Amino acid sequence: GIQVEQSPPDLILQEGANSTLRCNFSDSVNNLQWFHQNPWGQLINLFYIPSGTKQNGRLSATTVATERYSLLYISSSQTTDSGVYFCAGGDKLVFGAGTILRVKS
Amino acid sequence: DTGVSQDPRHKITKRGQNVTFRCDPISEHNRLYWYRQTLGQGPEFLTYFQNEAQLEKSRLLSDRFSAERPKGSFSTLEIQRTEQGDSAMYLCASRQTGSGNTIYFGEGSWLTVV
C-alpha cells in the first residue's frame, strides 16, 4: 500500500516565524489533503490539493504530483497554529505520522 | 450543526464488554469512513462505505470489529469482546464524491478499556 512520510516530525517556532512542512508519498495518489489536529483531537481540513498551489490566509500548499510530494507553508505563525499537521492521500486516505508544531509567544 | 457528529464522545468499558459507536455524517454525503488513532500516531484506516455498501475493510480489523451503514445515512462501529489494545480514538469522516473531495471529520469517540 501507499506509504506517507512527513517531515520534520517536530518543529518549534517563535511566533511570527515561517515554516514549511513536507509530505512524501511512495506512489502517485489522488485525493491529497492536509489537516490540522487541535489539542482536543479535532481534525480540521486545511486543503484538498491533488496538484498545484492553493492559499488560504497565512497558509498555502503546493503539490507536485509527478514527484509525489506536497508542501504546507505557514507564514507569520501564531500560537493558535500549534498542534499536529497531517497529510493524507488515496481513496482510503492513508495518513502520515504527522508533524508536531509548537509556536511559542 | 451540520458537521459530522459522533456518539458517545467518551467511553470507558471493562475488558470483554461490547461497545458501539455511532456516526452521523454530513447530510447527503455518500462516503463514510472510520479510522482509529492512538497517541502519537496518525489516523489508521478501518473501513469505508459508499452509501450503504461497505467497500473495503482493513486487514488490521479483526473479526471483533463490525461496521454498518444500513440506510446509507448514519453508521455504527461495534467492537465485541474489547481488549486493552482497543483503547484509542475512533474517528468518523464523510465526503461527497465528485464535489471537491474535501473530507470532514467528526470530533472522535475516545475508548478506554480497563
- Euclidean distance between termini CA atoms of chain B: 33 Å
Report the principal-axis shape of chain A.
globular
In round numbers, the mean pLDDT of chain B is: 93
Oligomer: heterodimer
Which percent range fits the helix content of chain B?
under 10%
Average pLDDT of chain A = 94
Task: Choose one word for the global shape of chain B.
Answer: globular
Separation of termini of chain A? 40 Å
Helix share bin of chain A: under 10%
Q: Mind summarizing the main beta sheet of chain A?
A: 6 strands, mixed
The interface involving the most residues is between: A-B, 21 and 23 residues
What is the number of E strands of chain B?
11
| Rg result of chain A | 13 Å
Major sheet size, sense and barrel closure of chain B: 7 strands, mixed
H and E string of chain B: EEEEEEEEEEE
Low-confidence stretches of chain B: none
Whole-angstrom Rg of chain B: 13 Å
Point out poorly predicted stretches of chain A: none
Strand content range of chain A: over 45%
Total helix count of chain A? 0
Counting helices, strands and paired strands, the structural category of chain A is: mainly beta
Task: Please provide a written account of the structure.
The complex is a heterodimer of chains A (105) and B (114). Chain A has 105 residues and is mostly beta strands. Chain A contains no helices and eleven strands. In chain A, strands 2, 4, 5, 9, 10 and 11 form a six-stranded mixed β-sheet that branches. Chain A has a five-stranded antiparallel β-sheet with strand order 1-3-8-7-6, with no helix packed on it. In chain A, strand 7 and strand 8 (69-74) form a beta hairpin. Chain A starts with a strand and ends with a strand. By secondary structure, chain B is mostly beta strands. Helices cover 0% and strands 49% of the residues of chain B. In chain B, the strands form two sheets. In chain B, strands 2, 4, 5, 6, 9, 10 and 11 form a seven-stranded mixed β-sheet that branches. Chain B is globular and about 40 Å long. The model of chain B has no long low-confidence stretch (mean pLDDT 93). The chains are: A mainly beta (105), B mainly beta (114). Chain A binds chain B through residues 4, 31, 33, 35, 40-45, 48, 50, 86, 88, 92-98, and chain B through 33, 35, 37, 40-45, 48, 56, 89, 91, 93, 100-105, 107-108, 110.
